[in-house]
Design brief:
It contains 18 helices and eleven strands. The protein is α/β, with parallel strands linked by helices. It has a five-stranded parallel beta sheet with strand order 2-1-3-7-9. Strands 4-8 form a two-stranded antiparallel ribbon. The chain binds ligand FSX. The site of ligand FSX has 14 residues, from α5 and α9.
């Protein structure tokens, strides 16, 4: 007779061996619904709808990858962001398409059973599982500032990274350090990439999905890409997927025409604000922030901060907490600056525009060429 532990392990294995299509069908998703899901997945990954049959074929035979999600110094906003999506969504479907074997906040198990699930998944799927990490890692005083089940965050991350096929850093904290790393950084917080760079953990293919919190559709889009192609998407120099971080918020903002015309709100309740003019003078960080908020938006595509009348605070950029007041303009747009803006020759604006153009160009290249980085092409520790 099988022990409870053996039964638990058996259940994990058989669910893991189901294909994504089998799992979705078991959840009551019709064939038509599945094809719609594939079309939505293509669009989420910035691929043309003609890719939907290829995605359907890939997902029809792909087994659900084991995913281990570790949470360190964070506010749980990243998980909240993901779970606040309304059902049924592409996001929820995607999470039926993976085997989430360990997640501090979402798992039912606790204590020893929870840690056993992590250890078993790491051993059974060594070299195959996806490691998702949110929160930064305290590096000061050998990581004593934060422990889980008596294990320091640094040690838990080190163990997790060792057998991971790829690591996805969810949120600004794990991508760039985020709030815990803000001055004076009392815990010596570091990002996953910082630790890889200094050799404190092994190097693995790393995708950063910054945002405080990140957009749920971006998290699921990246996972969908991995699930479909077995590869990670094309990344920029900060390990961000170009299809989602290739443009600045400013590049895609619906108020951009007002910026180009030199029409700015000077206060949050003046005529310009009422007319929906550009929020640049009120501190909007859209011109220096790379993310998809202006296109994917939030709450199922309902809105995003600029649409509700507040400037972008740049939460997906490195060091944003220490970058000064959220309400100070990036430069001083006086009447002269407005003229310069119109002419498109403001130094900061020109530099921003050039970098935005370069990024846009790269992003379009990635879209049309659909280049991928194979896991084997990337450096392994
Ligand atoms: Fe950080 Fe996420 Fe901001 Fe919070 O897990 S990116 S503080 S939304 O929760 O890590």
């Amino acid at each position: 007779m099988k022990s409870d532990r053996e039964k638990e392990s058996g259940a994990i294995v058989s669910q893991r061996e189901e294909t994504v299509l089998q799992r979705l069908r078991r959840q009551g998703i019709s064939r038509r619904g599945f094809l719609k899901f594939c079309t939505a997945t293509a669009s989420m990954m910035a691929l043309p709808p003609t890719m939907a049959p290829a995605i359907a074929a890939a997902l029809g035979s792909a087994t659900r990858p084991s995913v281990i999600w570790l949470s360190f110094q964070e506010c749980t906003g990243c998980t909240e962001s993901l779970t606040r999506s309304h059902l049924p969504t592409v996001e929820s479907l995607i999470f039926d398409a993976i085997s989430l074997d360990y997640h501090h906040t979402l798992q039912a198990a606790s204590g020893e059973a929870a840690e056993r699930a992590r250890e078993e998944a790491m051993a059974r799927y060594a070299g195959e599982y996806l490691l998702l990490v949110d929160g930064s890692i305290p590096y000061g005083d050998e990581g004593i500032y934060s422990t889980i089940a008596g294990v320091s965050n640094l040690e838990m991350l080190r163990q997790g990274v060792e057998g991971a096929a790829a690591v996805i850093a969810i949120g600004t904290c794990s991508s760039f350090g985020g709030l815990p790393m803000a001055s004076p950084n009392p815990t010596g917080a570091m990002s996953v990439n910082d630790l890889m760079q200094r050799g404190a953990i092994q190097r693995r293919p790393l995708i950063n999905i910054p945002g405080c919190p990140p957009i749920p559709a971006v998290i699921t889009g990246v996972i969908a890409h991995y699930l479909t192609f077995g590869t990670i998407p094309q990344l920029d120099a900060l390990h961000r997927p170009l299809s989602f971080y290739g443009d600045t918020i400013h590049d895609r903002c619906y108020r951009r025409t007002y910026y180009d015309q030199g029409k700015f709100a000077d206060t949050f309740d003046d005529e310009g604000a009422r007319l929906g003019w550009c929020l640049y003078k009120l501190g909007c960080r859209g011109p220096t922030t790379y993310n998809s908020c202006a296109t994917l938006k939030w709450n199922g595509g309902t809105s995003f901060p600029i649409q509700s009348g507040h400037g972008c605070i740049g939460c997906s950029e490195p060091g944003f907490w220490d970058a000064g007041s959220f309400y100070e303009a990036l430069s001083m747009p006086t009447a002269a600056a407005t003229t310069a803006t119109r002419a498109g020759v403001g130094v900061g604006v020109a530099a921003g525009a050039l970098s935005a153009w370069q990024n846009l160009h790269q992003r379009n290249g990635a879209r049309t060429g659909h280049q991928e980085v194979k896991l084997d092409d990337l450096e392994r520790g």
